[in-house]
Amino acid sequence: MKLFSVTPSKLVSVLTICTIALVGCSSQFNSNLRKVTYPPEFKYTEKADLSSDMHRLAAQMALLEVALGMPSVEAKNEPELQREKVLKALGNMSKIASNLKAGDMGANHPFMQDYMQGFVSQIDEARIAASLKQPRYFAAGKVSGGCTNCHKVNR
Q1: pTM of the model
Q2: Are 144 and 65 in contact (CB under 8 A)?
């Protein structure tokens, strides 16, 4: 009794389908495959772009932490210099985070939709507090822990 009969045409068909699937799933052809598999309004964020922006955000976070730890009572211009550095880091972080924020139509990183808007709001709050006549850096300190909050939830 023959359970499986393998003919050359069946073998060629299976190999062709496997080859197409393998080529379609390779990183070189992913963008073409996404055109067929995702709806047109879907915003796909490449991992390299996301990593690059996240690294830029981390660099600004490090600058913010250095700026928050720098006040010196001896020098008269130190508080103003500190404020400038804090505001510059927060401004850069706001731009990067706004860039990372997912669009309304969906994205391949759904947690970005949940947490990025709140993070951008925290940054804006910190910028306002730091730009007051008597700058307040408590909100900026909270922003510096914002990455930990999101990544702890999403890892």
Answers
A1: 0.63
A2: yes
Q: Is the dihedral of CA 50, 110, 105, 91 positive or negative?
A: negative
* CA distance linking residue 92 with residue 4, whole number of Å: 64
What's the pLDDT band for 136 if we cut at 50, 70, 90? very high
Quote the mean pLDDT of the chain. 77
Q: What is the secondary structure of 1-31 as a DSSP string?
A: --S----HHHHHHHHHHHHHHHHHHSTTTHH
What is the sign of the dihedral through the CA atoms of 124, 127, 140 and 98? positive
Residue type at 121 in one-letter notation = S
- Which residue type, as a one-letter code, is found at position 5? S
The pair of three-digit structure tokens given for residue 105, joined into one six-digit string: 């139509």
Torsion sign, CA atoms 90, 96, 98, 102 = negative
For range 6-21, the mean pLDDT: 83
* 3-state DSSP assignment of residue 62: helix
- 6: exposed, middle or buried (Cβ count in 10 Å: 0-12, 13-18, 19+): exposed
